[in-house]
Amino acid sequence: MEITLDQLLASRDRRHEKQLSLLSAHPRHTLVCVTVALPGPVKRNAHSLIIANAALTAVLECFRNTLADVEACDLATGFEVYLLSSVTPLEAKRLCCHIEDTHPLGRLMDLDVLEADGSPLPRTAVGEQPRRCLLCDHEARYCMRAHSHTLEQLQQHIAQMIAEYVQ
Predict the structure, then answer these.
(1) Are 24 and 15 in contact (CB under 8 A)?
(2) What's the CA gap between 119 and 49, in Å, rounded?
(3) What Cα–Cα distance (Å) separates residue 122 from each residue in 25, 53, 54, 58, 141?
(4) What is the C-alpha to C-alpha distance for residues 163 and 157, in angstroms, rounded to an integer?
(5) Angle at the Cα of 123 (from 147 to 79), degrees rounded to 5?
(6) How is the beta sheet containing 30-36 ordered, strand by strand?
(7) H/E run at residue 30
(8) CA atoms lying within 13 Å on the CB side of residue 164
(9) For 2-150, where are the alpha helices, taking DSSP H only?
(10) Overall pTM surpassing 0.85 (yes/no)
């Protein structure tokens, strides 16, 4: 099912409000927010569920001894996980970058570590480079803004990544 831009923006606003609420209610914990990074208007389909399950499994394994709480939400606008951990934000960011960089579907996972003000901790805070494009060597945000690749090219590559993962 396709979602509209208004639905996507509203879901981001709700997610941000939830993040701020969790940060306020749990000031001694680090908040990690997990979403699926799929281009296009369809945010919930068979591919997104495979990625979501892989992301949830990876973060639960990685943070298993430090978990304070986990909440998973399967929404029409996409899968979301809110994870509270006792590790520092910098250590959480290192762990998240490791998942994003080494998991076969890591490039399709968006693992944000939130600072106390609700802003995401950048990869550069732990010495990591910005994320690269799925299809070329440029920074992902550059290609996204410049529309360097078609939705079809991206979806085809994602389908191939998922097929290789589930083999």
Answers:
(1) no
(2) 26
(3) 23, 24, 22, 20, 13
(4) 10
(5) 65
(6) 67-75, 78-85, 30-36, 109-114
(7) strand 30-36
(8) 9
(9) 5-25, 46-63, 89-102, 140-146
(10) yes
What residue has token string 């979501």? Answer: 52
Two tokens, residue 58 = 């990876």
**Distance from C-alpha of 136 to C-alpha of 122, rounded to nearest angstrom:** 21
Q: At how many degrees (to 10) do helices 151-166 and 46-63 cross? A: 60
One-letter amino acid at 93 equals K
Which domains are delineated in the chain? 5-127 (3.30.70.1150)
Map residue 127 onto helix, strand or coil. Answer: coil
How do residues 127-155 score in pLDDT, each as one tens digit? 999 999 999 989 999 998 999 999 999 99
Structure tokens at 77: 């606008």
In the numeric block, the tokens 């934000």 are attached to 89
pLDDT tens digits along 5-56: 999 999 999 999 999 999 999 999 999 999 999 998 999 999 999 999 999 9
